[in-house]
């Protein structure tokens, strides 16, 4: 009521705004001042003006009222079935720009739902789904017992630093050529069914834990590797790395799937986040 009196400019206006009688408003403000023990409002002409104490109290009260309204709104959302949290597990090959775009779309419609994001590699998404630690996942494989929709296709390109010896052979690169060089390999983040994906014929390897580190390693000239095209685009445009002139197998393709943790119990927040991910990649699976 104090806020209404101040914002409306007087008791009568506040009463009209709150659909209360003016005497009810006056009585409530009088009780409030009595409880505080100091005047909060003074009447100057026909307007109610805040005292210094009233100004300090009103400033704090606005925050408290906003918090109370937010809490009430959250309680209503939870009662409607909105989840307090969505656990999202995403394969590291998923484009970061698309992920951020999806989260930005979801934020204004989230109704207070938190997103717990975990990035994984290879079998990490499958394990998160199977052990129940993911409500929604973007992964390279759909585990048995789950249903997944193709989200997008990603190209992994065999690349090396522009000055790497493999670029100076003067001919197409063969598997025998690769075996003599250092291959940069990304370690599977899964714990129980680690996977080896792609060509792994090199005698020497640098094994790293993330795609970003793999890109940095290759850009530093420490080896060759198959890396997502969208994550090396800038390095290629700057001439730091080049696609290897492979005789065969220079490009491999993989789908990423959008998978619900428990499709029969999918809440509205999880559904909205899934739709945001679809929209972020254009709605249909396509080549990145």
Descriptive terms for the model:
288 residues; alpha/beta; Arc Repressor Mutant, subunit A; D-Maltodextrin-Binding Protein, domain 2; 2 domains; 7-stranded mixed beta sheet; 10 helices
Walk me through this protein's architecture:
This protein is α/β, with parallel strands linked by helices. Helices cover 39% and strands 23% of the residues. The strands form 3 sheets. Strands 3, 4, 5, 6, 9, 10 and 11 form a 7-stranded mixed sheet that branches. Strand 3, helix 5 (96-106) and strand 4 form a beta-alpha-beta unit. It is elongated, with a radius of gyration of 30 Å.
Structural topology:
Layout: H1 2-8, H2 11-18, H3 22-36, E1 41-44, E2 47-50, H4 52-79, E3 85-91, H5 96-106, E4 114-120, H6 124-130, E5 136-139, E6 148-161, H7 175-179, E7 182-186, E8 204-208, H8 211-219, E9 225-228, H9 229-237, E10 241-243, E11 251-260, H10 268-280
Helix pairs in contact: 1-2, 2-3, 5-10
């Amino acid at each position: 009521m104090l806020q209404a009196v101040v914002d409306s400019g007087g008791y009568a206006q506040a009463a009209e705004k709150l659909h209360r009688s003016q005497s009810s408003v006056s009585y409530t403000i009088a009780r409030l001042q009595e409880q505080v023990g100091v005047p909060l409002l003074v009447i100057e002409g026909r307007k109610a003006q805040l005292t210094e104490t009233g100004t300090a109290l009103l400033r704090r009260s606005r925050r408290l009222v906003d918090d109370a309204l937010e809490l009430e709104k959250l309680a209503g959302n939870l009662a409607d079935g909105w989840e307090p949290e969505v656990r999202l597990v995403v394969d590291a090959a998923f484009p970061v720009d698309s992920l951020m775009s999806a989260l930005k779309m979801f934020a204004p419609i989230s109704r207070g739902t938190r997103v717990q994001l975990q990035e994984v590699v290879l079998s990490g998404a499958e394990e998160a789904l199977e052990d129940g630690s993911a409500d929604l996942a973007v992964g390279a494989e759909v585990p048995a017992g789950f249903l997944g929709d193709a989200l997008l296709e990603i190209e992994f390109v065999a690349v090396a630093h522009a000055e790497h010896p493999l670029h100076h052979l003067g001919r197409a690169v063969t598997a025998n050529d690769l075996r003599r060089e250092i291959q940069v390999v990304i370690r599977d983040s899964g714990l129980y069914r680690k996977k080896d994906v792609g060509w792994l014929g090199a005698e020497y390897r640098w094994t790293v834990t993330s795609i970003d580190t793999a890109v940095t390693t290759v850009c530093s000239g420490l080896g060759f590797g198959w890396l997502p095209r969208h994550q090396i685009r800038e390095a290629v445009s700057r001439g730091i790395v080049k696609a290897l002139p492979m005789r065969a197998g220079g490009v491999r393709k993989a789908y990423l799937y959008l998978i619900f943790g428990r499709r029969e119990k999918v809440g509205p927040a999880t559904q909205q986040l899934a739709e945001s991910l679809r929209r972020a990649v254009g709605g249909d699976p396509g080549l990145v």
